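Lab notebook, bench 4. The sequencing result for the construct came back, and we need a structural model before the next group meeting so we can plan mutations. Quick request posted to the team channel:

Model the 3D structure of this chain.
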Amino acid sequence: MNQERNCLDCGEPLHGRADKKFCNDLCRNNYNNQLNSSSYNLVRNINNILRRNRRVLEELNPTGKTKTTRKKLAAKGFDFDHITSIYQTKTGSTYMFCYEYGYLLLDGDEVLLVKREES
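Done. Here's the predicted structure in token form:
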């Protein structure tokens, strides 16, 4: 009834506890890193885009409220497809936010940049 168990990473025979899955910490870390790498890469890439978007909005909006153009945002690497929240005003305007910095698309190429005040 004593079935031989092998390390999930390297395949070496395991000795010791009955619930042991890896022969050492290196194998455990390697196995888990490989298991999570694709989903971790996706999350890391999206977080990088969001941080860059926030940085661009912060750089172009030092006073808390200003106007710029979509072209200037895009030239600095802003990605309009990635935001953290949407705020709809009572008048129907839709502000897109990347953390505390947001923007409102205006007519033509113009964009109103805003900073949400802490409450």
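The chain has a mean pLDDT of 92.
Will bring this to the meeting.
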